[in-house]
């Protein structure tokens, strides 16, 4: 919450600076951008005294959106990342027996995003929000099977299949930042976002993003 309030204060402070920017011409034009998404490290508490630590990580994505007018943009965001983690698990019969393991966690998010630019200028603070769906794969093996079949090209074929523990859930984003337009076709955005997942024991986490984009 402190980080979110700090971002809001930053936006208000920048609003006075942005008022000196030139009037822009975003209306009825499309934005397309590549985005980096730096997620801060975070700790989660699980059932029975278990815990999970996620390292900080740099993720990637891309987005596109339509400027309905100089202030409001509606679009889509697609992002992904691989995060290193460590976990503590508890023996069900002996709570003093604590085990440790680590690995890589893969995530992907598809979200509908809305952005409101506070000013119709080439330098403006913004606030944004989104709702989407996030896929999580722990890369921990859940099942291993071998199957055989007849193939029209290769004849009788046998192969193995591995499934992993994972889940998917609704996700929500709120954030704020600044947008800079050096010219009519290029823009850069710097922002902070708080992401929330509808998964048990997984509360919100913070991230910073940098977007490099083009307006057409």
Describe the protein.
- This protein is mostly beta strands.
- The protein has one helix and ten strands; from the N terminus they run αββββββββββ.
- The chain has an eight-stranded antiparallel β-barrel.
- Strand 8 and strand 9 form a beta hairpin.
- The longest helix is centred in the N-terminal third of the chain and has 17 residues.
- The chain is flat, with a radius of gyration of 22 Å.
Short description:
The protein has 216 residues and is mainly β.
CATH class: Mainly Beta
Number of helical regions:
1
How large is the share of residues in beta strands?
Answer: over 45%
Radius of gyration: 22 Å
**Overall geometry:** flat
Low-confidence region ranges: none
- The overall pLDDT average reads 86
Output the CATH topology.
Answer: Porin
Largest sheet: 8 strands, antiparallel, barrel
Structural class: mainly beta
- End-to-end CA span: 36 Å
Bin the helical content: under 10%
Order of helix and strand elements from N to C terminus: HEEEEEEEEEE
Assigned CATH architecture: Beta Barrel
Number of individual domains: 1
> Order of strands side by side in the largest beta sheet?
1-4-5-6-7-8-9-10
- Beta strand count: 10
């Amino acid at each position: 919450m402190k980080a979110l309030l700090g971002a809001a204060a930053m936006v208000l402070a920048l609003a006075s600076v942005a008022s000196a920017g030139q009037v822009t011409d975003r209306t009825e034009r499309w934005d397309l951008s590549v985005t980096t998404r730096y997620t801060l490290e975070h700790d989660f508490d699980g059932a029975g005294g278990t815990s999970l630590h996620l390292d900080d990580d740099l993720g990637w994505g891309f987005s596109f959106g339509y400027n309905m007018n100089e202030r409001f943009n509606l679009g889509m965001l697609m992002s992904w990342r691989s995060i290193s983690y460590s976990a503590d698990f508890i023996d069900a019969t002996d709570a003093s027996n604590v085990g440790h393991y680590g690995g890589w966690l893969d995530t992907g998010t598809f979200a509908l995003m809305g952005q409101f630019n506070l000013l119709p200028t080439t330098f403006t603070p913004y606030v944004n929000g989104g709702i989407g769906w996030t896929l999580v794969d722990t890369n921990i093996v859940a099942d291993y099977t071998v199957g055989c079949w007849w193939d029209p090209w290769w004849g009788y074929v046998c192969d193995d299949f591995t499934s992993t523990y994972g889940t998917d859930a609704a996700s929500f984003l709120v954030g704020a930042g600044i947008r800079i337009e050096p010219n009519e076709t290029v823009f850069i955005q710097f922002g902070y976002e708080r992401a929330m997942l509808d998964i048990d024991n997984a509360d919100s986490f913070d991230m910073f993003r940098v977007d490099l984009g083009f307006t057409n």
